[in-house]
User: Fold this.
Amino acid sequence: MLQVEGITAGYGAFTALWDVSLRVETGEAVAVVGPNGAGKTTLMRVISGLLPSRTGRLVFEGADLSGQKAYDVVAHGIAHVPEGRRIFPALTVGENLKMGAFLPSARSHYRESLERVFTLFPILAERQGQRAGSLSGGEQQMLAVGRALMSKPKVILLDEPSMGLAPVMVLRLFDLIRRVREEGYTILVVEQNVRQVLKIVDRAYLLEVGRVKMEGRASELAEQDFVRKAYVGA
Amino acid sequence: MSWGRLLGGLVIAFLAVEPFLPLGRMREYLVHVIVQIFIWSFIGGAWSLMGRFGLVSLGHGAFLGVGAYATCLLWNFFGMTPWIGGLVAVLLTVALAVVIGYPCSRFQVVGHYFGLVTLAVSEVIRLLIIAERDWTGGSLGVSLKPAPSDSSIWALQFADKRVFYYIAMALWLAGLWVWVRVDRSMASRAMEAIGEDETAAASVGIHVTRFKLGITMLSAALTAMGGVMLVQYLAYANPDTMSGIGVSLRIVFAVVLGGMYSLLGSSVGTALTIALSEFLRIYFGIKLIGIAETIYGLVLILCIIFLPSGIYGSIREALRRRSSGTAPA
Amino acid sequence: MIDPLFILEAVVNGILLGGVLALLALGLNLIFGVIDIIWIAYVDLVMLCMYAMYFMVTVYHWPIVLAGVGSLVLGAVLGLLVHILIISPILSSPPINQLLATGGLLFFIQSFATLLWSTDHRSVRVNLPVLEVGGIFISFPRLISFALALLAMIGLYLFLTRTFVGTAIRAVSQDRDATALMGANPLRLYLVTSAVGGAMAGIAGALLIIQYAVHPYFGSAFGPLTFMICVLGGLGSMFGAFVAAFIMSQVISVGGVLISTEMGYVVAFVIFIVLMFVRPGGIFAKRT
Assistant:
């Protein structure tokens, strides 16, 4: 469904990704792990269109999305839950979710999507009228994911969802991701928490200093080896 | 580079002797224009002391107005010599600068916000001048009372404009000297650091408030001096030409167009804008009222959009690119 | 001593004046809050719309309501033009250049207006009675302006809170990238914001022309006042601007009656400066 081919990208004179390729099949859950500074977030930003790539292609459901801006990429069905959540702090929870449904295609199903999100995350229904900036980290993460769901996406990009969350919340978060997965969404998740994320994905890529070092099925990968590599970067 | 030196030398030579050149009526007109260029360049330079460090004031008209009116009124009503009256004016202006500058410096009022606050201050001064029309003459302005004798150093009034010419030149040169001194001082490094990141600067012990306030006070004092000079030369002050948003914007324009970060930027910019407005004024005469200003405004907008580093800055960049050949790696 | 009835009248007039001032301040604040650039020439756009109203009503004999709509549309168009021609090229320039660009626009508009229409004052004569309520006199045009200004502000509020585009405009002022991830084009939102801000200037122009005469330097009178209201209320805070507008209008109105018209303005400005000492970020500061 989603194919990243030979992407080289960076910021100014600095190159963060070198010839990176990966693929995500429909219905799959794929993880990208790696140490800090490996370029994982850069990769997400290139896929969602926030950052242009210097070389390579981005193919989604057969269509070449290379070079498209973020607001066009979303329309194709790729929803990006950014690093740090990036919810709109001065808008209410309800308004954040409303923004998620901004796309014309999503607007017509607004009520329906909202119901689904509220069923998945009942606490958001409770806090509908509350300023999003006053939510806890875990609640904000739920809001960010819920907001992404509102655009009726085909694939969801999750960038470091467990970052900054208390350990208890982290467990709940991964449970949440599993449930979203069960709803039928295709997921690409970037994570530092290797052990946890491997439990909920089918395949994983190891990114190191901007290059794909390893790739394999989550169940096959010897956790010890892979984990050691991801954390230590051997 | 030697072309630049030659040109510079010619300009200096010309300026030094212009009042004595046999140019007929042109000479007097040129003296008049050049005096204004000297004074306004000086004022622009004073503004740039703040502007180059990120303190973009849109209200220097306030300092100009206080400087000009205080001196003029003290002479008109109390016969106070402008040498002392000017000093009083400068002190008043500095006081005003402290009143506005202190809360702004202390509370990190910068950027657009600072610009608006200063704009408001210049309007306060302008309105005050107009409101107190009984002794300020209101919108009609006030004329400097002629001194008992034609030319008097004590009254700082001279029948022969050429005396003003050299005084204004001295003022202009003094302004350049101050600019260089500030540029080379520790204050300059500190202000640059503050301009980049106030919090970081404060954390390494730079006394942010003191520096910002100091630069503001210096800028205000110099601007006031320019105002004193102006009112003595023109023998007339008017709230719209010496305070308010109009004159404040003109000062900033001239400096930015010339190039805020270079020594001669203010002078080049002022010379160009005054030359432009004089040209337009003469060309259109009284034919179409307002067209001169319209073109002036249009030129300013276009320059800001297409020459962001100012005319002087853009020329320097172009010359640098040409002399270095291919672009650096 | 001054008749307390005069003061009451001044208070009421102050409230009525505050309505239009609030409208001006909201328009300016909207644009600044979203695009982060201050249109120094904003009130001069209002001036242009006032002239348009004048010509539509007195020269082309349009009914005044239609002219009002025309003014709104003109304002929106002017807003778009300003953004496309002047703001877009300098979006990433340093603040000083941005301030100067709109400052240059101020010069341009004021002198262009002088060129076209000379400095004569022009006004639109509206045949409406002066109301008398309990001994105080209220100008009917002023009352209507107030009511319409309130309606416009309510309309703006509903637009910003109930519609998708309006919510997106609020969102883009908080997080530009995240807004793009929602499928909303930030640059297009800036255009809409400029058009809305311009439309409010258009409405304000229509409301002002029936109370004041227009001339090319009208912006010099109301402009600085509008800026100060925005700063006082906290740049970027819509509610702050709303409140500050009424505070200032009260000071001007009552001060004008107690001392003199100009001094009323001076006092208002001085209060502004004093409040800068007390709360430098403005009463309801949001953006720094």
